[in-house]
UniProtKB/TrEMBL annotation:
Family stated for the protein in its record: Belongs to the Nudix hydrolase family.
One BP term from GO: DNA repair
Domain of life: Bacteria
Matching InterPro entries: MutT-like (IPR047127), NUDIX_hydrolase-like_dom_sf (IPR015797), NUDIX_hydrolase_CS (IPR020084), NUDIX_hydrolase_dom (IPR000086)
Protein name according to UniProt: 8-oxo-dGTP diphosphatase
Amino acid sequence: MDKHSLKIKIAVLAYFEKDGKVLLQKRKNTGWRDGWYGLVAGHVDEAEPYKLALCREIKEEAGVDVLEEDLEFSHFLSIPAKISDCDRQFFYFTVKKWDGEPFNMEPDKCFELAWFDKLSLPENLIPVVKSGLDKMLAGEKYSEFGWEEGYTERS
């Protein structure tokens, strides 16, 4: 790849919290980190505003309606191509309000949606998602994952 051409994939992630618990989904049949937990999330389509993309993904995956104004930017995470197929950017948003009770809308791609105590998250939480989530919960707005020299684990 031309070093002056940068290919970036952008993902938006939803942080739902209720009564000290965080909503996670357990992946299946996706080809990446199946059996691992992550946040409700998805990729941004070309020319799609990020908050609108997340509202769409939340509806598709968790069946609840969220308005763009009820999403609060919480964290940005940068991931290098050396641990993925290209550079990636994760934008974490806190869902301040939603309409309905989240449920598994994609049983072909998700084993379950489940609420976990935010102080006791499952060990099989996707490492890159956990890294950003930990930083976000610590109040940090920016972090990087996998950029340090010698880091080789695939995200």
